[in-house]
């Protein structure tokens, strides 16, 4: 079993047919491109995906043929093609939830000078679907739609873990235990405390960037997967002070989005 198939099995899915494995491996190649990785050769793609170079070579040719990759003959490497961006645009503009949530998020961000975000889980990371930033203090960290943050370290991720069923959360916790082995005891306690916060109050708060407090709540909206809404602020306040200020804003916004989404769904 190769590393990619092992990863798929670890996520609780049955083994794929050969045709499906080809599709999944092609998607793994597209996933290998991250911010700062404009162009990648077959060797780098093989290293990042765990696939054999011969497999990568075959699949990159198919991705070039379909337009999802562009081949640079001078550099003998690949960059993402325009259809990738087109798919992202289709997702954002076609989402009823984003159409409902974004104006409400913007209203809160502008009125209270806060940063407001909405995210979904993707494997062991959270991906921002929307990020509206009106923070009171200048921050060197700029967050945009499509940006990823680590699940284990952020209030976004921990709120999602609190809402996730055991069969999804437990494999991730084992994965985190291996990755953060040197300080897993501390991190596990923090995650457990965040899960308890969500179950007791509906939200959890964390600070994984210096002087940035973020508070998050999971949202179950119709037939959509669990989304996570967050509010953040650059501040020197204590975590308890930040929670006292931010939690009411967050929960009112979550309620407003839930009501507006239900109305939009008829």
Automatic annotation (TrEMBL):
It comes from the Bacteria. The keyword Chaperone does not apply. It holds the Pfam family IclR_C. Coiled coil: none annotated. Residues 76-263 form the IclR-ED domain. Keywords: DNA-binding, Transcription, Transcription regulation. InterPro entries: GAF-like_dom_sf, HTH_MetabolicPath_Reg, Tscrpt_reg_IclR_C, Tscrpt_reg_IclR_N, WH-like_DNA-bd_sf, WH_DNA-bd_sf. SUPFAM superfamilies: GAF domain-like, Winged helix' DNA-binding domain. Transmembrane segments: none annotated. This is IclR family transcriptional regulator. It comes from Cupriavidus pampae.
């Amino acid at each position: 079993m190769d590393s990619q198939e092992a990863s798929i099995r670890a996520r609780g899915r049955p083994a794929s047919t050969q045709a499906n494995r080809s599709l999944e491996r092609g998607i793994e190649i597209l996933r290998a491109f991250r911010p700062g990785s404009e162009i990648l050769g077959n060797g780098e793609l093989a290293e990042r995906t765990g696939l054999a170079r011969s497999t990568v070579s075959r699949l990159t040719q198919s991705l070039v043929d379909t337009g999802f990759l562009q081949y640079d003959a001078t550099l003998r490497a690949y960059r993402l093609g325009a259809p990738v961006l087109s798919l992202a645009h289709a997702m954002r503009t076609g989402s009823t939830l984003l159409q409902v949530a974004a104006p409400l998020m913007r209203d809160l961000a502008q009125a209270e000078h806060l940063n407001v975000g909405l995210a979904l889980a993707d494997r062991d990371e959270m991906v921002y679907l929307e990020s509206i930033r009106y923070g009171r203090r200048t921050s060197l960290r700029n967050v945009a739609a499509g940006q990823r943050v680590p699940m284990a370290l952020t209030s976004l991720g921990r709120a999602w873990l609190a809402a996730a069923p055991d069969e999804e959360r437990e494999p991730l916790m084992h994965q985190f235990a291996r990755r953060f082995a040197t300080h897993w005891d501390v991190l596990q306690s923090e995650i457990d405390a965040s899960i308890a916060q969500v179950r007791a109050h509906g939200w959890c708060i964390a600070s994984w960037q210096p002087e940035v407090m973020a508070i998050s709540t999971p949202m179950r909206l119709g037939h959509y997967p669990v989304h996570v809404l967050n509010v953040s602020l650059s501040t020197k306040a204590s975590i308890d002070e930040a929670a006292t200020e931010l939690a009411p804003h967050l929960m009112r916004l979550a309620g407003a989005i839930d009501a507006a989404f239900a109305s939009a769904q008829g």
